[in-house]
Amino acid sequence: MPNIPRELRVRRGDDISKALSALVRYAEAAEVYTSSNDKDLKVTRKSQGTLVSAKFAKNGWPHPFKVKGGVVSGFSVSEGTVNGITPFIDEIPISGIDGEGNRVDVPKIKVEKESDALKTYIAIKVTMLSGGEAGITESPDSLSVVHVEDLSDRFAQGGSPVQEDNDSNDRVAYYPLAKLYWSKDGAFLKFRQIVHHNLNHRYVEGGTNAEGNAAERHYFWAA
Question: Tens digits of per-residue pLDDT, 165-204?
Fold first, then answer.
């Protein structure tokens, strides 16, 4: 038997006016539900009456920097910010809105794995331009989303350490948004979201440590 609300129940000889008022309220609260999938709706007929049930789709939480897509179609990243600035993919803001406020196609990352790594990353890439100020700017050269096949071994020490860009003297750091998993034969398996919030960033200048490596560090935390 379906679970009938208490306010709709009456016994023989009871005043039914309150129950009728409650029934009207339930009817007015009903909404029309449409679906292109017949499996979403189920109608069960019994001697006591007819029961209709609906299965609603789960939309999930549309959080910042949500990674969507796949290797074949490419990966898109929902809008998020670092220090209030929206990153770029291939010189297009990940929001799909250009600098003049026009809607454009949402950019996607085409992943081309070149190593035998079993785990790779879609990551924020922060570049401190040589001779520039200790901060990031609203520029694809300064803030972008990329696919990387490795992170510095020092990443787990807290705060993203500086990683030198092989093509220039710019100081580069990465912060992973999602981890991609691969089989030994190079087939893509799945990905796991890491970041669920906007980010703040701070760059701390320094000299060299005892090993002669750069002591500068990039720090990221939830905005």
Answer: 555 556 788 899 999 999 998 889 999 999 999 999 988 7
Question: How many residues are there in the chain?
Answer: 223
State the average pLDDT for the chain. 80
Residue 150 neighbours by CB under 8 Å, 6+ apart: 115, 117, 120
Partner residues linked to 179 by β-bridges: 121, 192
Q: Residue 192 class from Cβ within 10 Å (0-12 exposed, 13-18 middle, 19+ buried)?
A: exposed
State the Cα–Cα distance between residues 177 and 155, nearest whole angstrom: 14
Split at pLDDT 50, 70, 90, the class of 11 is confident
- Sign of the alpha-carbon dihedral angle for 186, 192, 195, 196: positive
Integer Cα distance of 204 and 213 in angstroms: 15
Interior angle at CA 134, CA 129 and CA 139, nearest 5:
50
